[in-house]
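Per-residue structure
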Amino acid sequence: MPQVKGFVNRYFYFLMSLLFATLVVWGFSRTVNDNLLHAAPPRPFLLWIHGAAFAGWVAFFIAQSTLVRVHKVSWHRLLGWFGAGLAAVMVVLGTAIAIIMARFDAVQLHQSGTDAFLAIPFYDMIAFGVSIALALYWRRRPEFHRRLMFVATVSLMDAPVGRFDFLFNHNLFCLCLDLLVVLGVVRDLGRGSACAQGVSLCAARVDRWPKPRDIHVAYQSSLVAHDHPRNPGIVHGRCNL
């Protein structure tokens, strides 16, 4: 048991980066073909750039976690400035694509109430942007920096998690995102570091900031229906990727 605990403490962020990648690939593999690659009507080209940028962030998080584990701190810091630029682009891109796709769904797909859905990506971009800004400010304080980077990446996971119909149908969407942060809290509590525990608990509180959960519930059946158009038990709806 002590060996397992030591391994988890040492490789926690690297393992979580792999988990994030798994969620992204697994989640989007369910919808990306019908909603982007062979979509009818074709989606805006900016959506392709959006997908590439956000996938690039997951690859960046894996690379940064790996560089820390192999003690290439100088490389980690250098690549970090690329990540800062990418994060800035993502905030602008994420906000823009949310507005564009809301209009696309209303005009091209003739869906109603698309503006209400904007609360979700807008919140995600605020949570992501603020977490990244604080991570940069505390970049020389690893106990703050790494946890803020972790929380920022968790804030992006609602998109892939949202592709699983079971989670939507059983109202487990937000709970799954919270559980990702709880993993970090549990890890820190096990380490016994007062500072680490405080940062993790604050990060968990940020992730629990009141989200538009009523909108999540209202759009559950429609999102799942668009992901699984052959399921006759669900009413047709909207989804970007």
Summary: The mean pLDDT is 82. Residues 2-227 form one domain. The chain has one domain: 2-227.
